Amino acid sequence: AFDSAVNTSCGADGFVAVLEPDLTTYRYGSFIGNSTISCTMVDSVASDGCGGLVVTAWEAGPIWPTTPGAFDTTYNGGSSDAWVARLQALDPWTALPGGASGSLGIPALRGEGLPCGANQVSLLLGNALPSAPLFLVIGLSRLDAPFKGGTLVPAPDLILVGFTTDAQGDWSISAPWPAGVPSGLDVYFQAWILDGGAPKGYAGSNGVLLDVF
Question: What is the pLDDT of residue 108?
């Protein structure tokens, strides 16, 4: 969290929270106060639609940090002054255990990009057998089933074939995030690489979870 402790001595502190779409659990929570002598009162919180939050509030004291190039970087009030802040987007990608060891160990899969707007999202694979065919498993739920001497992480709702690692054993795929994908969706990914050095002939990467904003 940006601020994990109550920081005010005046009996109030601001906070923001992001809930899962079903409102049962926190996705993110943070206080917004800044020092033991500062009173912060949050007026409004809005989503930027891409995993970030825009917050407006007032602060009793010239304590709140500003960033270079801000519209106004000085405290202009007497007893208080208003401020606006944007909290950076949450990381929607989570690495999961699983996979199957190959000639070079377990290949490493990771994701990049924010799943919103027309942002580019990517999957990047490394530590795989060079110049080897692979297929990508995509699922909307987590399976964690025995497969090829390892663990198949996603439910195999979609399997994409026809890919090959490069001469360094790397591979990647990128695309603009498609419109109309509902928020709160969990998408799981895993790559499986043809590898004669693997016990069952295939090396499996770790799983990756994408939590759609």
Answer: 98
